[in-house]
User: What shape does this take?
Amino acid sequence: MVTIKDVAEYAGVSVATVSRALNNSGYVGKQSRIKVEEAIKTLGYYPNEVARSLYQKSSKMIGLLLPDISNPYFPLVAKGVEDYAQQNGYMIILGNVEDNIEKEDMYVKFFSQYNISGVLSAATGKKSQNYQVPFVLLDRALEEEDYSIATDDHLGGELAAKAIIESKGKQVVVMAGPKNIAGANDRLSGALGVLNSKGLSYQIFETHSYQVDKAEETAVQLFESTSHFDSVIASNDVYALAVMKEAIKRGYRIPEDIQIIGYDDMLFSRLMYPGLTTIAQPAYELGFQGAKMLVDLIEKNSSEHKKVKLKPKLIMRDSLR
Amino acid sequence: MVTIKDVAEYAGVSVATVSRALNNSGYVGKQSRIKVEEAIKTLGYYPNEVARSLYQKSSKMIGLLLPDISNPYFPLVAKGVEDYAQQNGYMIILGNVEDNIEKEDMYVKFFSQYNISGVLSAATGKKSQNYQVPFVLLDRALEEEDYSIATDDHLGGELAAKAIIESKGKQVVVMAGPKNIAGANDRLSGALGVLNSKGLSYQIFETHSYQVDKAEETAVQLFESTSHFDSVIASNDVYALAVMKEAIKRGYRIPEDIQIIGYDDMLFSRLMYPGLTTIAQPAYELGFQGAKMLVDLIEKNSSEHKKVKLKPKLIMRDSLR
Assistant: This one.
């Protein structure tokens, strides 16, 4: 590995001069600076980040905590986070915490040991004060957190209900997501607000998880525990897909007999046939903007926006009449 | 933050004693050791990993390079890697390199700056010698690499072709994946070997990428550039889904007019209707075993197995006759 001593020798200056040039502290003559820069370039010298991190008590690393990386929504968020981080010289430490408080505890300790610069968390457990570094809540907004970025799920719920009404749904099932997830409640209240204002008949079907491996049994339960319906507002695209499959198995046509709208806009929603009408969450944008907010906090100790809500939008395909 | 000095004061011993106790080097009296351990527990002291890393010239961090995190196959691999790493006290640094050699260059530099312990790479570019740390090639096997873990893609190709033959395919299109990916060539040769041995008529349709955003245009090209066919061996499940959609749009029935088999066994393949028959890759297992191989290399400088091939298997659903 090339060391600062090698750079000093090559440039014909002292180690102290190289150090001052690197840190922009103290006087370095113009000629010396040029020589140092040339030496750095020629030798391919990179200041040791571990040493720098120890000195500055922070590293250029961001912790990213996700609740379920096997749900295809989160890799898109992660991609947005990583793109912004990379453009700004930060690395991502990935933690898949699976709503498991012990796993998250372990990450809190790790992050402290590694002097991590900041944390972006879409996990449901620990709050900002546990981390003692800049913290941005991702994909959710909570009153007690200062910085957060999330989709406007109330609006998302409204958009879904309006689309069902425009396509002449009469008997609607609204799938209510997990009660401990604020966004799930926002979606539900958005949808119910619109359905109530139009005096439409609806049933609420409660689901206790977004975990993808529960989708099929949930779809079966939906058909067995609710009375006749012609429209479904699903928790997300994975659950919409499972409900569609169960409907077709039971001899219903999509959308003639049962129409359905999802939430997220996954890759398969576009590629499947009939294409799934859904509410698109700006997953990539959420990750990208969340990383930007965190890096602003880390570098300037402030951020222009504290609580950002991104707008979801309706993507019309073939699963509504 | 609690320091080693705080621990020494609380325990009523010298800093040097605490240091010897922590590093298990030199003599520490039994009473002192108990006092130090109590102090560590009470104060919640964690040795600073950055300092330890600087001293030992390595960190407990693993670099994980993926070619496309938005392809739902890779998050499953990442989950396997993360589970093993976490159980063994390692953190994952995630890099989504997108077949982009400049992005990968940047990660090589970063990894060197942070004294990373080892690298797991499913990216197509840089080889082990660029990293100068233990290196395991993930999801691919190359002759010039010492350590790798991959699915036996030759066998996967054979299984797909055999399934097509058993379901009475007559005119087969085999989608050939990117030529620069060894696994894609293995699959192709496995499939062609079986088709040739049975004297079946086939056409090869070349694709230049596995990137998910190319799936739809590739499906259109497939129908426009190949003559009549009744069976498709697709590059992967995402491409199979896109081909199915295009087929249905053009008025073909699945599987009566055109049957299709995928590769990977994605979540949606199980949830869609008709369900996609496919070759399941053990994605989670691949990540888990790959991480184990790397940690063995890091900690013992050896590993029992050098080049591991995991077996894929046929998952029968409804897209074959």
User: Anything to note?
Assistant: Chain A has twelve helices and twelve strands. The domain at 58-150+284-310 of chain A is CATH 3.40.50.2300 (Rossmann fold).
